[in-house]
Each structure stands twice: as C-alpha cells, then as structure tokens.
Amino acid sequence: MAYQYEHCADCRRILGREWPEVHKWLDELSGQYRDDHRRHRHHAEGIEKVRGIWGNEAALAAQVHIIVDCWGIPRANDYVSGQVNKFGFTLESTAEDVGRLLQCLVQQYKKCI
Asked: In this structure, are residues 96 and 102 in contact, taking their beta carbons and an 8 Å threshold?
C-alpha cells in the first residue's frame, strides 16, 4: 500500500495533477476497517463512484491508486467471492502487473488529451 503522498506523486507524474481528494476518499475507511478497507472502494465500482463525484480525470486518478495498491482493478464482488484477498490481490498478481497496467493507463490517457 502506498502512502497518500506517493499516490499524489504518481498522479502528478501520469496525469499532471495530484488529486488528493480522490486518494483521501479511497482510503477514508482505513481507520475503521484497517486492512479490510479496500473491499469498500478499491474496485471498479469505486472508480465509477469517483467518476460520478469528480469526473473522468479523477476516475483515472482512482485507477492509478487502485492499480498501485491492488496490482490490478478488482470488482467489488471479487472481495466477497474470494477472487481477491483483502488486499485486492489475486493469486496471479505480481509487482510487474503494476508497471504494465500503469503504462496502458498512460497510453489510454494520452489518446484522450
């Protein structure tokens, strides 16, 4: 799990803006649920919630955050079904997935601007 300042730095590097409000919202329940907080917002549905609140670029910031924390983007039900563990990882998740997924996100973002 990355710290807030690391999530902000990643977004500044990739998107040109830090989006601290997005990172705060995604991790807001960590005090209450500790290690289990990701099941509440670190998933594809959480990204769509961010999109509804702050827009498309903020949704990209949420994707960056979740990819870095979970080494992918799970669905909300993946936590319930056991497809991912409480940290959002599958059995196949690797650190290399982070770089590959972030590179795909960068390429997608560049097409949009």
From this structure: no
The count of domains in the chain is: 1
How far is 44 from 69, CA to CA, in rounded Å?
A: 13
How many other C-beta atoms can be found within 10 angstroms of the C-beta atom of residue 8? 20
| pLDDT per residue of the chain (113 residues) written in tens, 0 to 9 | 689 999 999 999 999 999 999 999 999 999 999 989 999 999 999 999 999 999 999 999 999 999 999 999 999 999 999 999 999 999 999 989 899 999 998 888 777 65
Q: Which range of residues forms the domain containing residue 87?
A: 4-112
DSSP code, position 17: S
Instruction: Give the separation between CA 39 and CA 76, rounded to whole angstroms.
Output: 7
